[in-house]
Amino acid sequence: MKQETLEATGSFSRAVAKVRFKEAQIEMAHGAGGKASRRLIEGLFVPLLCGSGAEFLGDAAHLQINGSRIAFTTDSFVVKPLSFPGGSIGELAVNGTVNDLAVSGARPEAIVTTFVLEAGLPTEVLEAEVRAMAGAAQRAGIVIAGGDTKVVEHGKADQMYITTAGIGEPLSGVKIDPRTLRPGDKVLLSGPIGDHGITILLARGELDLAGDLRSDTRSVFPFVEALVQAAGPGIHWMRDPTRGGVATALNELARDSRLGVAIHEESVPVHDTVRGACELLGLDPLHIANEGQFLAVVSEEQAEAGLDALRRVPGGEEACVIGEIREQPAGAVLSVTSYGASRIIDMLVGDPLPRIC
Amino acid sequence: MKQETLEATGSFSRAVAKVRFKEAQIEMAHGAGGKASRRLIEGLFVPLLCGSGAEFLGDAAHLQINGSRIAFTTDSFVVKPLSFPGGSIGELAVNGTVNDLAVSGARPEAIVTTFVLEAGLPTEVLEAEVRAMAGAAQRAGIVIAGGDTKVVEHGKADQMYITTAGIGEPLSGVKIDPRTLRPGDKVLLSGPIGDHGITILLARGELDLAGDLRSDTRSVFPFVEALVQAAGPGIHWMRDPTRGGVATALNELARDSRLGVAIHEESVPVHDTVRGACELLGLDPLHIANEGQFLAVVSEEQAEAGLDALRRVPGGEEACVIGEIREQPAGAVLSVTSYGASRIIDMLVGDPLPRIC
């Protein structure tokens, strides 16, 4: 492979690679997926590794290997607790990497996985997670092609950390590039937001709130595939809004496209439990992590066909248009309401819900 | 990709996939690369993930993606301390994955990486490791194509754990398969063994022994490439003997080939410091980890050409033939001396030197 054949997809922008990371030490917020994460990535990882075309901002790199294009990505998982309503770390570890491949415009094909295990971990806990991974892989239609295990002393690693890396086959006819955005493009969302983050919070018992909430962890590839079939060349951008939530994903898009993103907040589906928890905590559902939702920007002409396609995917019945691309405010996300009020929605700042994936 | 196109390389044997892991909890030895690791892999990971053709025993899986064959592997790194004479966790993380690709018979092309960071980690420590990775990647001729960062609370993760996954292009004309071994084949080794493991031990200050020893961490792909050019179809097996050392690698080979491996222990190069440390600790240098040595089994006819090729690689000047394949003792490794004595050399049992990679 020659280096010039490496093409980073998604929101990575070489223009920002000269920023210098000035903080003296690493804090929890640097892993939260918001502004601090971005400073670390753009100020340290990208400048030092960028000669090699690093793609550290959430999607997959697309490379040319052995004459074929291939999508390649990785993620680590440190969620606490290990299991929660609707899923567990094993499912997250499979679906998270599958989804990074999917939203880069690739069909997920295979993953490899490593476990860092804490000495003293009950075998049944490990076995449950390995089974969860096998099930998630089967549902996502991928193979688990290999792995590695390390063990660290009791007291380290919170039972287990899992890392997965995945490869996939780029879909033909899909070109994901924020620079192709045009004013008038529509922002599509697959369903209710914030379920995953608030489920984790409730599973920790940190909030005295009952609610029938489950993590949304799943493969979003069915959404990608349906949208590509229905609106192929009309697709300008895709993302699974995980850490940092929908607000952070759209802020990155606004910044990279140098256009504005207007969100009709009333049209964003949010379950009552999520809304209630956010009100109690002073959080915005738009900042809460999802592990099975899908965001896309599609040309105005193709948006209706795309939306219909998403709604026909099982689990996509609540898909909706939540906003559109505008000339202004360039580089920012604006929330507008039906009675005319508006506010700027920033990226996630700090880490209100640490270790949710 | 269809599942039947997935082909596991190296020593993985489906025949063992029915063993059941019976231990109640995970111990340090399960991460040491010896017998306990093998029980965990064969008794838990393989049976649960094996429908997907898992390759958990050290090399890379070779898959068919988008019409091309691709090698794919992953490893986590939890070494203590983070840096040591001759290298650091960042270099290990690059070279370890590069070497798994190389000994599977592939040209390493690209890696992705994740960091699990401990809150409070000084930025300069992280920066040093990212620079080490960039340098190792450049020396190995690969690109770092992307990554992910998670942060865990202070007290977890021993400053940092690094995981890498790599992809590579299978070399044509190389077929690595223990079943192709024949009595008379020669066992080639690239140089002195045990330097890495003992360097880590000394760096921890756990042993009152001075010595000018350095980790051997490096890419072994130059050895692979030279051997393939010199002895292509004569190559029957390759391995980088990391955790568990040369003895464990050769025991796996003996088991998988159902042939015997005879080692002339006097011909195995070992630095004095390594030998001294092993004598003090009651360890066998054959069980000590290496991070830049290369083992191969080559047909009798091609062995001399292969050895000459290895010796011409910079850093391979001490390459030598350390033994040969025999009919007996089938499935075991035998050490023989010039004065006629012999002993069976087992795989590593337990974990005498935890967290050396």
Structure description:
Two copies of one chain form a homodimer. With 357 residues, chain A is of the alpha+beta class. Chain A has helices at 35-49, 89-103, 123-140, 195-203, 221-231, 245-257, 272-281, 300-312; strands at residues 7-8, 61-65, 68-77, 83-84, 87-88, 106-118, 143-152, 160-170, 186-189, 235-239, 260-264, 295-298, 320-326, 333-336, 342-345. Chain A contains eight helices and 15 strands. A seven-stranded mixed β-sheet of chain A has the order 10-12-9-13-11-14-15. Chain A has a six-stranded mixed β-sheet with strand order 1-2-3-8-6-7, covered by helices on one side. In chain A, helix 3 (123-140) links the parallel strand 6 (106-118) and strand 7 (143-152). In chain A, helix 2 (89-103) runs parallel beside helix 3 and helix 5 (221-231) crosses helix 8 (300-312). At the A-B interface, helix 1, strand 2, strand 3, strand 6 and helix 3 of A face helix 1, strand 2, strand 3, strand 6 and helix 3 of B.
